[in-house]
């Protein structure tokens, strides 16, 4: 091919690349401005609806972000590899969801936020969030409660039951220990 033709192609590519880069930069600035606006609105709504203690803020590390075009507050529980998302709905209603590694988002609760100027309602709303996160973490991490069941009777237990009458006669509060089969021979 001729060098003049190659130069024309190269110049056209540069024009297209420059135009595409400018369009992408402008789009990125627009998205960042929109994101900033959403985060600022969310921040103002959070300040009106919730009164977190400094310790709660330190432990839960709230971060403002945008998810699916809506502002959300992320509370990250690193030991659980879970993120709790607090998002506003209509008329001061809020939803709290948990997103755990490898699982679909789970709705924990939907509740009314506090009212600006009414500090007890703001504190209560913040306490609801902390409580729901705490309940979820403890249920996910805590000991599994297994209902108490009666263990199967062992031959040592049967010997103790058989000797229970003798122990009552001696006014002893607990039975004497048995030592395997030797207890049978000693009459224990």
Describe the structure.
The protein contains six helices and five strands. By secondary structure, the protein is an alpha+beta fold. The protein has a domain at 13-140. Strands 1-2-3-4-5 form a five-stranded antiparallel sheet. A hairpin with a 4-residue loop joins strand 2 and strand 3. The relative contact order is 0.08. Residues 142-152 and 182-186 have low confidence and may be disordered.
Radius of gyration: 34 Å
Residue share in helix = 40-55%
Overall pLDDT: 78
Structural class estimated from helices and strands: alpha+beta
Order of helices and strands: HHEEEEEHHHH
Gross morphology is elongated
Give the beta-strand count.
5
Number of helices: 6
- The parts where pLDDT drops under 50 for at least 5 residues are 142-152, 182-186
Strand-residue proportion: 15-25%
Main sheet properties:
5 strands, antiparallel
Q: Termini, distance in Å? A: 109 Å
Main sheet strand line-up: 1-2-3-4-5
